[in-house]
């Protein structure tokens, strides 16, 4: 009895030992850099997304134009990159080129820690600086890691912006035309309310509500206000006309029934699903939904328009390509970025449902994509990207979620909400010494 | 009559509990076999018209799930075996050997067990980088062997403190040394406890997310929970594929649990007969 047990235990031991040995043996093949033969590339976009499609083609073109060089591509999880980018980039495991999130807390922080390569001279030499100034804002960081600085640390291939999605069938049914001014927009929503339909699908528990709030502020704002709010180039008065109008109008929209009382607890995904189910005629959110709606909103005809009357809209350049300081093949990485900026890759990105930064509308054949990029060109020609409301301070996202929830629930007056969101903003200014 | 009434009341409560526990699993399974278009038009609670397995298949191919299963199995099995062995050796010294200051040791192990993993990350990162084990499965195996055996030592020591002295004395009279006593007497008798530990270690290590996420950089070394993280985007969430991946992620753990469950009962029975 004991002996069979012992034998089992010994077998288990041996098995474990061989497993450990196998684990050791598996890491011997980790060389592969420095000789200009391998480009180690990471990104975290799905293979069927616009970026995934365009970048797969870019890899193909890169290998064709660089005979003898292999692209060693790995699809990463966003969570892993977010959690451990600084550790990876500080080790020999760093890739040669990697997709990374733009913004002060992500790319800005890494650039401040000296983990990213300064791309300024490459950007000038290779013409990446042809992209519009507001898209460049998220590529360039100062020595404190604050965006809008003087040095290039990343290059985006795509942009994103917030727009109004509308259900054409419901618009026709209620005899509503596409509005071109904010007053017409409100009149349109009144028509729906009178017919017993709540016009806006809003996710108050996540980012959508604060983007509507920000749209309303932007309707009264100009570029210098945005520079003050986002880049700390001036003082922002939270009781000024922009934010006061936003808070009052947002509260008004709830009172008038444009925004449902129960939307404070709705998350972004159910918001989108409620819209694709045809329960609401209008959804105000970003271009990141576009591809999904093209694929999934099958029950009705739909279209988009820019938030009526605004010349500034929430939006920004997309995630950026960064070259780690410890990358072993930086020249290959620059070549790869260059290929992703070529017209055919940019057009492919556009035709696959993305918003290219250097797109050529005449090359976009897909009708649905054309509408998306046409609208983007409209706002990009006036340099109308105003970034996102939660960017200026760490943890500000939750502050704005709470603030807009108070407006939806009516638990605080607009003035109280403005006081509530002003404090963390100003605290952050003090802490970075602005 | 009364007894029967209370019995059926208990049954009703239990049934209700089972439903509450199972409903998230049911929801995951429901959405895993639903097409994205149906999710968009019907929402998460609607029943799909037809079974849609493309989400499952796509996810499997996308992350090379077979490889991830192997990696997870390799790491969990190695950790479970090694951590049980280390626990036995520690607990033999502390529980039966009664080395001096064993109370302090046990408190130390308990504290080590309570330490959040986030606090360990940076020291472990620098250590593993120094010895060249960053981005290797061996690093994860060593770390988890230490973490799990801290708990194992704590638990097994209290089991061994209550070990019948007569048994040990009899072994000593028969001429068995310390080493022989351990493997021929103590281990076989405590087999049920050991298999419980083994099962727990295996499943706990299998479910670990944070440290493997930090230490296993290359995709071909990653484990199942880390692979599931691939789908968590910045803003977008793909509900049907996420459900498919969640289903693929839980199924192995459930299967292993069922397998171990049987060996567990067998272990307990064997102990009882002796």
Secondary structure: elements and pairs:
The complex is a heterodimer of chains A (434) and B (274).
Chain A lengths: L1 H24 L12 E6 L6 H16 L4 E6 L2 H12 L7 E4 L3 H9 L7 H7 L6 H4 L3 E2 L9 E2 L2 E2 L2 E9 H6 L8 H13 L5 E2 L5 H12 L4 H9 L9 H15 L12 H9 L5 E5 L3 H7 L5 E4 L9 E3 L2 E3 L7 H11 L2 H9 L15 H15 L14 H14 L4 H18 L3
Parallel strand pairs in A: 1-2, 1-3, 8-9
Antiparallel strand pairs in A: 3-12, 4-5, 6-12, 7-9, 7-10, 7-11
Chain B lengths: L1 H31 L3 H7 L11 H10 L1 H32 L5 H13 L2 H14 L6 H25 L3 H9 L4 H12 L1 H17 L2 H6 L8 H5 L10 H35 L1
Features:
heterodimer; A: 434 residues; alpha/beta; D-Maltodextrin-Binding Protein, domain 2; 2 domains; five-stranded mixed sheet; 18 helices; globular; disordered N terminus; B: 274 residues; mainly alpha; MetI-like fold; 0% strand; Sugar ABC transporter substrate-binding protein (chain A); signal (chain A); Bact_solute-bd_prot1 (chain A); SBP (chain A); MetI-like (chain B)
Tell me what the structure shows:
The complex is a heterodimer of chains A (434) and B (274). Chain A is α/β, with parallel strands linked by helices and 434 residues long. Chain A has two domains: 38-158 and 318-359, 3-Layer(aba) Sandwich (D-Maltodextrin-Binding Protein, domain 2), CATH 3.40.190; 160-316 and 386-431, 3-Layer(aba) Sandwich (D-Maltodextrin-Binding Protein, domain 2). Chain A contains 18 helices and twelve strands. Chain A has helices at 2-25, 50-65, 78-89, 104-112, 120-126, 133-136, 168-173, 182-194, 207-218, 223-231, 241-255, 268-276, 290-296, 330-340, 343-351, 367-381, 396-409, 414-431, and strands at 38-43, 70-75, 97-100, 140-141, 151-152, 155-156, 159-167, 200-201, 282-286, 302-305, 315-317, 320-322. In chain A, helix 2 links the parallel strand 1 (38-43) and strand 2 (70-75). In chain A, helix 17 (396-409) runs antiparallel to helix 18. Residues 1-6 and 16-33 of chain A have low confidence and may be disordered. In chain B, 79% of the residues lie in helices and 0% in strands. In chain B, helix 5 packs across helix 7 (137-161). The two termini of chain B are 41 Å apart. The mean pLDDT of chain B is 86. Chain B: InterPro entries: MetI-like (IPR000515), MetI-like_sf (IPR035906). Chain B: It is found in: Cell membrane. Chain B: It is a multi-pass membrane protein.
């Amino acid at each position: 009895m004991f002996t069979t047990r012992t034998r089992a235990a010994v077998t288990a031991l041996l098995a474990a030992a061989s497993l450990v040995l196998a684990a050791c043996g598996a890491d011997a093949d980790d060389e592969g850099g420095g000789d200009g033969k391998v480009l180690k590339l990471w990104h975290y976009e799905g293979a069927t997304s616009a970026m995934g499609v365009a970048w797969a083609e870019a890899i193909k073109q890169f290998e064709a134009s660089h005979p003898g060089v292999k692209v060693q591509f790995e699809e990463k999880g966003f969570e892993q990159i977010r959690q451990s980018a600084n550790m990876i980039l500080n080790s020999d495991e760093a890739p040669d080129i990697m997709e990374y999130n733009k913004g002060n807390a992500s790319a800005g922080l890494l650039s401040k820690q000296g983990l990213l390569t300064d791309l300024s001279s490459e950007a000038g030499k290779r013409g990446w600086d042809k992209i519009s100034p507001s898209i460049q804002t998220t590529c360039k960081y100062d020595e404190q890691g604050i965006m809008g600085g003087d040095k290039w640390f990343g290059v985006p291939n795509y942009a994103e912006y917030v727009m109004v999605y509308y259900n054409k069938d419901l618009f026709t049914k209620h005899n509503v035309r596409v509005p071109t001014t904010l007053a017409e927009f409100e009149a349109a929503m009144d028509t729906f309310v009178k017919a017993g339909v709540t016009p806006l699908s809003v996710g108050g528990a996540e980012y959508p509500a604060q983007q509507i709030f920000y749209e309303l502020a932007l309707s009264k704002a100009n570029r210098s206000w945005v520079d003050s709010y986002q880049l700390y180039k001036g003082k922002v008065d939270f009781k000024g006309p922009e934010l006061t109008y936003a808070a009052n109008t947002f509260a008004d929209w709830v009172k008038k029934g444009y925004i449902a009382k129960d939307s404070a607890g709705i998350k972004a995904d159910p918001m989108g699903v409620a819209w694709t189910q045809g329960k609401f005629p209008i959804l105000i959110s970003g271009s990141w939904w576009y591809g999904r709606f093209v694929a999934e909103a099958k029950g009705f005809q739909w279209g988009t328009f820019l938030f009526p009357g605004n010349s500034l809209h929430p939006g920004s350049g997309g995630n950026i390509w960064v070259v780690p300081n410890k990358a072993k093949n930086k020249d290959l990485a620059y070549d790869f970025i260059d290929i992703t900026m070529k017209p055919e890759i940019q057009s492919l990105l556009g035709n696959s449902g993305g918003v290219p930064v250097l797109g050529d509308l005449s090359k976009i054949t897909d009708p649905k994509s054309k509408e998306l990029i046409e609208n983007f060109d409209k706002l990009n020609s006036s340099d109308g990207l105003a970034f996102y409301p939660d960017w200026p301070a760490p943890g500000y996202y939750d502050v704005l979620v709470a603030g807009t929830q108070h407006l939806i629930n009516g638990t605080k007056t607009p003035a109280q909400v403005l006081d509530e969101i002003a404090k963390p903003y100003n605290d952050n200014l003090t802490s970075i010494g602005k | 009559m009364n007894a029967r009434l209370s019995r059926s009341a208990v049954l009703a409560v239990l049934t209700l509990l089972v439903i509450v526990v199972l409903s998230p699993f049911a929801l995951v399974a429901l959405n895993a076999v639903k097409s994205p278009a149906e999710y968009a038009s019907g929402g998460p609670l609607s029943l799909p018209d037809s079974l849609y397995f493309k989400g499952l298949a796509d996810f499997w191919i996308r992350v090379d799930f077979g490889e991830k299963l192997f990696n997870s199995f390799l790491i969990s099995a190695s950790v479970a075996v090694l951590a049980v062995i280390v626990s036995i050796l520690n607990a033999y010294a502390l529980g039966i050997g009664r080395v001096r200051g064993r109370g302090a040791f046990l408190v130390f192990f308990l504290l080590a067990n309570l330490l959040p993993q986030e606090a360990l990350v940076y020291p472990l990162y620098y250590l593993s980088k120094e010895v060249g084990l960053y981005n290797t499965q061996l690093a994860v195996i060593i770390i988890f062997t230490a973490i799990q055996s801290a708990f194992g030592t704590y638990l097994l020591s209290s089991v061994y403190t209550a070990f019948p002295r007569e048994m040990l004395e009899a072994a000593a009279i028969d001429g068995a040394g310390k080493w022989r006593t351990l493997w021929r007497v103590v281990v076989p008798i405590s087999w049920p406890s050991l298999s419980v530990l083994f099962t727990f270690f295996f499943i706990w290590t299998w479910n670990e997310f944070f440290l493997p996420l930090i230490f296993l950089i290359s995709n071909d070394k990653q484990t199942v929970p880390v692979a599931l993280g691939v789908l968590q985007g910045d803003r977008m969430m793909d509900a049907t594929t996420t459900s498919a991946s969640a289903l693929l992620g839980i199924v192995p753990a459930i299967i292993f649990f069922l397998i171990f469950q049987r060996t567990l009962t067998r272990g307990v029975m064997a102990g009882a007969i002796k």
